[in-house]
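Dear V.,

Thank you for sending over the compound details. I've combined the ligand you provided, zinc ion, with the protein sequence from our construct and run the structure prediction for the complex. I'm sharing the raw inputs here so there's no ambiguity about protonation or stereochemistry in the SMILES, which I know was a concern on your side last time.
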Amino acid sequence: MNIRRSVVAVSLIVLMLPIVAVGQDLIRTATPSVRGLTETDFPRVKEVVPDVYVYEALTGPPDDRYTTNSMFVVTEGGVLVADGQGDLEETARLVTAIAKITVQPITHVVICSDHGDHTNGNRSFPDGVQFIAQKNSLPALERAATDGGVMPDTIVDDRLDLQLGERDIQILFLGRAHTGGDLFVWLPDEKILFTTEVFLNHMFSGYRSAFAREWLVAMDAAEELEADVYIPGHGFVDSPEILKEEWFEYKNHLQAVLDEVTRLHKSGQSVDEAINRADFGPYSDWSGADSQGPVGIRRIYAELNGEIE
Ligand SMILES: [Zn+2]
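Below is the predicted structure of the protein with zinc ion bound, written out as C-alpha cells.
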C-alpha cells in the first residue's frame, strides 16, 4: 500500500486495481468503513478491461459514505465518460485522473442519471465536450443548470449508436426507472453495461423521481443484452461475478419494496401508517434504507393512486 501511494501524485490518489482481482469472500456492502476503506483510499480508478475504467469517488454525509461511479472509455477517437460527479471539484479530479491515463481528449459525456450527484460538476469538463441526455431528463437538467450542470447538445429518444475510434458504443434508453431519463451505456464487444442508478450495489434504491413498476421492466430489457459486467451508479465496483449476483439481488429488493408497499396500500393503510409498518426484510439493513424507505413508500403510493404520469 505504501509503495503504491508513494508513486502517485500527492494531489490525487489513483489506485489502479483490476476488478477481477477482488476476493470472492468480500463483505457485501456499500459502506467503505465496513471494508476497512477510508477517505484517503478515494477517489480510485479501476480498470474493467483495457481502455474501460471506472472512477469511484466518495460522497454522502460523514456517517453514511458511499461511492458515486463514473465510467470512462478510452478510444483513438477520444474519451467517452458515462455520468459525471456531484460537484465541480470532484469532476475536475475525474478529468485529471483521465488525463493521467490517456492523452486522448474527453469528447463525449453521457448524462445517464440527471440527478445532481452525477451532474452538478459537469461544467468542469473541458470546452467542446458533447453532452448527451435522454429527452425525459430535460426538465431536471434545466432546473439544475444553475448548480454547475449543463444542458445537453444531443438528445436521445430510444438509442444512439456511436463509433469512437474503432469502438462501437451504444447509448440506450430501455424505459423509465430511477429518474425517468435513465440511459445505459453498452459496450457490445466486451459486454459491459454501465447501468447508472438503475442498479446500485447493495444500496437501498432512491425513489424520489422513480417509476417503481416500470423500473423492473427496464431491468428485464437490460438483461436481454446478456451483459458480462453490470457497472452500478453507486456502491462498489466489485468483480463481474459479484456484480451480476448483486444486479439480481437489487431487482429482488425493488420487487420486495414494491410488493410490500402494494400490500399496505391494498389493505387501506394511509401513507403515514405504511411508513410506520413497512417491513422490507433483509433490505432494511442496506445503506440508505432509513432515508429512502419512506421516500419510496410515498412515491409508490402516488404511483398506485394514479398521481404520476
Ligand atoms: Zn445518485
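A first observation: Residues 113, 115, 117-118, 197, 233-234 surround zinc ion (CB under 6 Å).

Warm regards,
I. M.
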